Amino acid sequence: MNKKILIPLIIIIIGTVSFLIFSNIKKDQIKTIKYDLKKCDFDIIYGKENAPLTVFMYSSYSCMFCRKFFNETFPQIKKNHIDNGKIQLIVKFVDLTHDEYVFNSLKLAVCINQFGNFNPINKLLLTEPDVVYSREFLQTIDDFINKDSFVAECMLSGTAEEYLKNNEAEFKKIKLTGTPTFIINNRIYKGFRNYKSFSKIINQEFKKE
Prior knowledge:
Elements: H1 3-28, E1 44-46, E2 53-59, H2 64-82, E3 87-93, H3 100-115, H4 118-127, H5 135-147, H6 149-156, H7 159-173, E4 181-184, E5 187-190, H8 195-208
Parallel strand pairs: 2-3
Antiparallel strand pairs: 1-3, 2-4, 4-5
């Protein structure tokens, strides 16, 4: 190969590799928040109260990678870290879409979690998030309101709405930008994690305590 072509090509390759290394280092830098997150009544909580490590998660059913986490990573996390009392996972729903249907589905989810059987509605929204736009789902919301006074009060009194708006305000205060976001020991971990990656983070956080 002509040296006039080879030398610039080597420079470009070295520059590209250096950029990728720098980008990965920057990506892996962990930011921290300056205050402790608090557990709220309407949070979705998995695990024991006395678990030695608490993991906060900002999430939404409209977030594809949040659903991916719960469908793919969470089952193993629950089996190997939550059910044995190692961690407590606290899910804080946040609506970044400002879509009325999405917001109402989150309101229903937190209210059902408080006063009913959360698993069916949770499973439905994890597997079929677009169901929130269907007539059947809107009818489901009306049915819960008409049949359960506790859910009705939760949905209509503004309590669930206030909770979700407080989550959004807190999310913005921390200067977070997307979901899922995990906060452990005040350290921020952004984006989807598979089981191996998430388990590694958990083990690292135990060592840092």
